[in-house]
Amino acid sequence: MGGGRRQFLPTYETDIEGIRGKRTDGEDLIKHWQHHHSHHRSAYVQNRIQLLETDTERGELDYLLGLFATKHLPYHLDADEQQIPTLTEMVSKAMDILERNDDGYFLFVEAQPVFVTPVRHRALNYCPYSLLFRDFCSRHLYRIGPWTTENHPTLGGRIDHGHHYTQPIRAFDETVEFAKAIEMARSRTSQDNTLIVVTADHSHTMTMSGYSSRKNDILGVNNGQRADDDLPYATISYANGPGYDRNVQREARLDLNRVDMRDKSFAFPSTVPLGLETHGGDDVAVFASGPWAHLFSGTYEQHFIPHAMAYAACIGPGRTACTTDQS
């Protein structure tokens, strides 16, 4: 489930929005999927209403494909609620289907897209249910997204994009939606048999600075001091990005008291001019709960994460919790 419908269609076909596909191999992957599952209990949905009307709770559906936008799903703040499901709704529908697998499952949630991979197990003393929530760009808690909106039009969600355009109001709202989906997944699973991992693959150059008072608007100006040019400065700023022109490149720095920083499209101050803000080099956090969650502590390389999850879920040919128990 997610966006990127044009990536499934050949260049000579158009989707329901009248947009041509991007595939140069002539393949219509949507029709391929429908043909492959023609003898299965399956459904292809293209908007929120269709998704919510799909009966996934009574065991009447085994396969679900949802493509809700031609390109990226819109930001939650901009989404048409008739057309675009929330991340929580997509995760809930995926879990409805996967929870019927008594041998366990693996669910990969990448902010807005939801990738579902059932994993079958036969062992007993292991973690049969695994959920990986990965955002593509976490600095402090969890964030998400690809590099550019054109080069990778189906990856990730929109937290990453909000930061690339130095629009933290959009990025923060997407983070809240991400947190809601995680909260829902935790509420309907047990820590006794479900490992949930939340992480990211990179940070951004966003920073929070200054000595603002408690309860000061995080999306406003620092109310604890002014800069040496006697102008206010934003609590949130970026090392680089499109906010440079409006905030730095002028005879005098932009007076933030004279603009609407609550405008969701407002580009927050950037030090270096770039069309898109870059990723950062910070360590990103990994949060885990459930069986073997203690493996996800300390500092380690990113590629350790799938190995630790495979160990907990008894997946793959390497050493796992199951082989350890047997020995």
Automatic annotation (TrEMBL):
Mg(2+) binds at residue 110. Its cofactor is Zn(2+); Mg(2+). Keywords: Magnesium, Metal-binding, Zinc. The keyword Transmembrane helix does not apply. Its EC number is 3.1.3.1. Zn(2+) binds at residues 160, 164, 201-202, 279. This is alkaline phosphatase. It comes from Anopheles maculatus. The lineage of its organism: Eukaryota, Metazoa, Ecdysozoa, Arthropoda, Hexapoda.
